[in-house]
Write a structure and sequence with these properties.
The complex is a heterodimer of chains A (590) and B (232). Chain A is an all-alpha fold. Chain A has helices at 28-33, 38-68, 78-114, 122-144, 173-201, 214-245, 269-302, 310-323, 339-351, 353-367, 376-399, 401-407, 411-441, 447-473, 491-524, and strands at residues 256-257, 260-261. In chain A, helix 6 (214-245) runs parallel beside helix 8 and helix 7 (269-302) crosses helix 13. Chain B has helices at 2-20, 44-71, 84-108, 111-141, 150-182, 186-216, 221-231. Chain B is built from 7 helices and no strands. Chain B is 77% helix and 0% strand. In chain B, helix 1 (2-20) packs antiparallel against helix 2, helix 2 runs antiparallel to helix 5 and helix 2 (44-71) packs parallel to helix 6. By secondary structure, chain B is an all-alpha fold. Chain B starts with a helix and ends with a helix. Classes of the chains: A mainly alpha (590), B mainly alpha (232). Chains A and B meet through helix 5, helix 6, helix 7, helix 8 and helix 9 of A and helix 1, helix 2 and helix 5 of B.
Chain lengths: 590, 232
């Protein structure tokens, strides 16, 4: 790697890389199962995350069935409802989104996009996936454990999380959840070290930091954040595990349960909340920053425009990453805190809107007068912008203490974070899959099925979550298994709940179309060729599609330009790949 | 969490400094400069270790933060400090010193001295761990068990987390020692020993902080007062 800035007319010989640096698989098992190839590991991450994500999707159906049609389904009682909530939330946030963005997209794209042959520590990278899989299996095991999975809510707040009144609290559910989280963090740390060091040290000749695609910037920054934030969750999980198993009292105050004084005493439940949210808020951006990066690349490619304000986009990513560490207590306004701290955290929360807004404006200005191709990836990218703005605006409501306090325990919060952290990142996941699937498999996903999937998902998501804001304003509480007779809840809210549930079932079913498309196109999809989107970034310039082990053979690429040379005046085509030295640049300021 | 915030602030300052040297003000869309080789980067394994130390440091800072938060509550009853831990601290320092000497020997290419240094470091570290376990037993025998009160629980947890890091380091040290027998190139040996030494110095530095924190229970009320005053 070297930080170089070659002139456009200078052709630089590639760095010769010795064959022995790569681990070459000797069997089917070492090629596809215990593989050290980051691309295979990325696909393994993606498939595992998708599989467990489907479990979470089914759990959300069950929740919606209960909320929309209370009392109809006898197998959904209070305990199971809380278990569905808890597992749905934790799976979606940690085991699906985090794993998919960093483990899936990160593994597949980082080495390719920076021109490396693989991650710098391939063996550790392989371990990362297998530890992640173990974490998922431990989590799934809790469904079959005595007492079932934990029903503590996805934030696992003590003291209730480990009390007998909470499903799984006094049995195996909470133990398996905490062990699974600890394993996940250990596995992620192995992968995270790889992603960061690969970006820092394995970039190919000419790939300066400021020539990296924004996808890499997003994943890189999010990984650094995750490496710093996950230890807080790890510490919290271990301490709670000790409270549950050894009877320590880190988080457990003196308690009387069912008339019996418990052995606990002197612990601080608020301490757990601090630890959890010190991880929890950066986690929002650990998911969002890769999405920001990917969506930037999708927009530039499918609008045939250089990204507007590249430098500002990079600075905004870094700025958001830094700021996200000093906003965590805005999740704790209702826990009781010194008013000045509330003021401090409300202020930092609102400040973070500035770099975020910069990114949104830059996406819009990239689209402005672009040659917009409404491909399926582009549709999902546009859906992301709209959804993220909507979700972000309701976040401004909740960032203010006086507004948050009355809304905090209502469905408004559920609607807000599903828009900003559920629907928005998932649209990017889909957009990214439709965009890079041709590189991964060599075939295009079916366009018609893709459009059907998009429109049902997009319109359906709005039909679900927009009314949910309104229900929240009415004061409908979240976390309730059944509303029962609440004088302030009008009958129309119940009707709306039923409507939301029906739409949720339809949106869920639409994902089957997507899954079918993934499998069908693998065999019957149109041949993609090496660069179907006519994109500039390095992953599209590999000698083989799908890229072979080592990505570039004996000749890694040399980078001559940034990642966004689209529609360059005077150029023969409307894109110039990063590794193309000619034609000579005219130095036109854009 | 103020200690954590200070850690994040210090880290942020370092990252800002580092980024300022990475040409983040460049205008890549206008770049037409000549080809130039950058300074040779540090070994990937070294970068990986530094990053891991950052993660481990972050974990310990969060733990210390939690400890300090709990300590400020009125019902805090500190654990009586076993004197044995002074000896343990000395053992860990010896271990670190032995690895420092092994590193110097590796730089000079003296393989036999490297082997001796690694063995001495390993033995001292194992004695440190044994000493920590003895200290636990001493406390437990005196009635201070993990479930007795939060101060006791923190004592066991913090020392256990540090001990596990030492144990992990011993695995790496053992692998380096075994590799020595197979006779790796002197350059590879030098890198491995340097990594071990760096990790050991980190463990010693962390232990000294934890030792001060657990042994003397210094109040940080003044720090909270300053932070609150600045908010007001």
């Amino acid at each position: 790697m070297s930080g170089v800035a070659p002139g456009a007319d200078q052709v630089v010989p590639p760095a010769e890389v010795a064959e022995v640096e790569l681990y070459h698989p000797h069997s089917w098992v070492t090629k596809y199962v215990f593989s050290q190839d980051a691309k295979v590991i990325g696909i393994q991450y993606a498939l595992t995350a998708t599989a467990i994500g489907l479990v979470a999707l089914v759990l959300s159906w069950l929740m919606r069935l209960q909320l929309g049609f209370p009392g109809t389904f006898s197998f959904i009682d209070q305990a199971s409802y809380y278990q569905f909530i808890t597992m749905h939330g934790m799976i979606m946030v940690v085991y699906l989104l985090t794993a998919l963005f960093l483990g899936g997209f990160g593994n597949y794209l980082i080495p390719l996009m920076v021109g490396a042959r693989d991650m710098v520590f391939p063996y550790v990278n392989m371990l990362s996936y297998w530890v992640y899989l173990l974490a998922v299996l431990v989590l799934v095991a809790s469904f079959f454990a005595p007492g079932g999975p934990t029903g503590a809510g996805w934030t696992l707040y003590p003291p209730q999380a480990i009390l007998s009144g909470t499903p799984g609290g006094a049995e195996w559910g909470i133990v398996l959840m905490l062990v699974s989280l600890a394993l996940f963090i250990a596995g992620f740390t192995m992968g995270g070290l790889n992603y960061v060091v690969t970006v820092l040290q394995a970039r190919t000749r000419g790939m300066t930091l400021m020539r990296m695609p924004l996808t890499v910037w997003g994943i890189f920054t999010a990984t650094v954040m995750a490496l710093l934030a996950f230890p807080a969750l790890f510490v919290g999980a271990v301490m709670m595990l000790l409270d549950r198993l050894l009877g320590t009292s880190f988080f457990m105050p003196t308690l009387v349960e069912m008339g019996q004084q418990l052995r606990y005493g002197g612990g601080s439940p608020i301490l757990f909340q601090h630890l959890f949210w010190f991880f929890g808020h950066p986690e929002v951006y650990i998911v969002a920053l890769p999405a920001f990066g990917i969506v930037s690349d999708l927009i530039a490619t499918h609008a045939r425009r250089n990204i507007f304000g590249y430098r500002m986009m990079v600075w905004a990513i870094v700025g958001i990453g830094a700021l996200s560490f000093i906003v965590w207590a805005h999740h704790m306004y209702v826990s009781g805190m010194h008013p000045w701290f509330g003021f401090f955290f409300a202020t930092t929360t609102l400040i973070i809107a500035i770099p975020t807004a910069i990114k949104v404006y830059n996406w819009l200005l990239t689209l402005w007068r672009g040659d917009i191709h409404l491909t399926v990836p582009m549709l999902f990218a546009l859906a992301f912008i709209v959804t993220f703005v909507n979700g972000g605006l309701s976040g401004l409501f909740l960032g203010n203490v006086v507004v948050d306090v009355p809304l905090s325990d209502t469905m408004f919060v559920v609607a807000h974070f599903h828009m900003v952290m559920g629907v928005a990142p998932i649209t990017v996941v889909f957009g990214g899959i439709y965009h890079w699937y041709p590189k991964v498999t060599g075939r295009m996903l079916h366009e018609g099925m893709g459009r059907l999937h998009f429109w049902v998902t997009f319109v359906g998501a709005y039909a679900i979550f927009f009314p949910m804001h309104y229900i929240g304003f009415l004061g409908v509480p979240r976390r309730y298994h059944e509303l029962g007779e609440m004088a302030f809840v009008p009958a129309s809210a119940h009707t709306l709940n039923a409507f939301i549930s029906v739409v949720a079932l339809i949106v869920g079913a639409a994902q089957v179309v997507f899954l079918f498309n993934l499998v069908w196109s693998l065999f019957r999809g149109r041949e993609a060729g090496p660069n179907p989107w006519r994109a500039t970034t390095l992953e599209w310039q590999t000698p083989e599609t799908p890229p072979g082990h080592g990505n570039w053979g004996r000749e890694p690429p040399v980078v001559y330009r940034w990642a966004y040379d689209y529609s360059v005046p005077g150029a023969a085509e409307d894109f110039i790949p990063q590794n193309q030295p000619a034609p000579a640049r005219t130095g036109i300021a854009r | 969490m103020i200690v954590t915030l200070l850690f994040v602030a210090a880290l942020g300052a370092f990252v800002a400094w580092w980024l300022s040297r990475q040409g983040l003000a460049a205008k890549p869309w206008l770049e037409t400069g000549p080809v130039g080789e950058a300074a040779s980067p540090p070994h990937a394994a070294k970068s990986g270790l530094y990053l891991f130390l950052l993660v481990a440091g972050s974990l310990l800072v969060v733990l210390v933060s939690a400890y300090l938060m709990r300590m400020e509550m009125e019902d805090w009853r500190p654990v009586p400090w076993p004197r044995l831990l002074w000896l343990n601290t000395g053992l860990l320092a010896l271990s670190s010193l032995a690895l420092h000497l092994a590193r110097e020997a590796a730089r000079r290419g003296e393989v036999a001295a490297v082997g001796f240094g690694l063995q001495a470091a390993g033995v001292a570290a194992m004695m440190f761990l044994a000493g920590q376990v003895l200290a636990w037993r001493e406390l437990a025998a005196a009635g201070y068990r993990p479930a007795t009160n939060p101060a006791d629980a923190f004592f066991y947890l913090i020392t256990a987390v540090h001990g596990l890091h030492v144990l992990g380091g011993l695995v790496a040290l053992g692998r380096t020692g075994l590799g020595l027998r197979r006779g790796p190139g002197i350059e590879a040996l030098r890198v491995r020993v340097e990594l071990c030494a760096t990790y050991w110095h980190f463990l010693l530095a962390v232990w000294i902080v934890l030792f001060g924190l657990l042994a003397f229970s210094p109040s940080v009320a003044w720090l909270y007062a300053i932070c609150r005053a600045s908010l007001a």
